[in-house]
Amino acid sequence: MKLIDGKAVAEEIKIHWKQEVIEYKNKSGRVPHLAAILVGDNAASESYVGNKVKSCAQVGFQSTLIKMESDVTEEELLDEIEKLNNDQDIDGFIVQLPLPKHIDEVKVILAIDYKKDVDGFHPVNFGRMAQGLPCYLPATPYGITLLLERYNIETSGKHVVVVGRSNIVGTPISILLSRKSPAGDATVTLTHSRTKNISIIVSRADIVISAIGIPNFITEDMIKEGAVVIDVGINRIEDETMAKGSRLVGDVDFNRVKNKCSFITPVPGGVGPMTVMGLLLNTFKSAKKEIYS
Predict the structure, then answer these.
(1) Which entry of 14, 91, 96, 116 is annotated as an active-site residue?
(2) Predicted local distance difference test score (pLDDT) of residue 245
(3) Per annotation, catalytic residue among 5, 117, 119, 251
(4) Residues of the chain with CATH 3.40.50.720
(5) Would the pLDDT of 243 be above 80?
(6) Is there a cis peptide before residue 100, judged by omega within 30 degrees of 0?
(7) Is residue 119 flagged as an active site residue?
(8) CA of 126: how far to CAs of 105, 232, 273, in Å?
(9) What's the CATH class of domain 28-113?
(10) Is 52 an active-site residue?
(11) Domain 139-273, what architecture?
């Protein structure tokens, strides 16, 4: 078994990008600028956004964090999005999900200018991705493909089973891996909570990507010998042995599954850091006008 160390790969990428950002600054007179809107006081969201701001500083990006109270109206949030859409100094921005229940997430995503949609959620970017056209890829699937390429994991002709069908991870990664690309040309089966005999389907996979959001859902008996396991799940469970009384685990029963697979991502430290890299790479592409002019 070989551990896929997303944290280490992210650090390597940051070192490389730092020099590229310096060269871009010397040429253009500016640095890439990423903004984030954080609504409410969700601890997980604050942590995620904090990591993104920290990573921006490490590679030389400028970042702006806009905090809004949990009782902010939908109209006020949409007004803030429109300001960022029109701000020529902002190359890309995100609205951190989830949002309070009184705000329509779909309406918010649609309000973001697709040319600044560095999370890759807007239907324009999603549709272009599905057709293999230049676009901003969804950050987490983008990060997964970067990991597969960095570890030279062959996907061409392989059977990939994706567990979970969200628009953020499951559905887009199933599309990306089936496309003609370095981390693609796979035969993909997309499964979810309503899939019958899911354990049997997963057990036939050469590569398993789990993003179903259920702690330890993927068990040892579901993984065939030598399979590659990518765990996207981030779940908090109670653990009295920890200082906070809880700990993070993935969708995969790591300690048992690791003995059967050829490669596996840990949680935390696997896919998470690479999601941030996908976001920053999209922002850099936006700054350089590589996708949209």
Answers:
(1) 96
(2) 77
(3) 119
(4) 139-273
(5) no
(6) no
(7) yes
(8) 16, 20, 22
(9) alpha beta
(10) yes
(11) 3-Layer(aba) Sandwich (3.40)
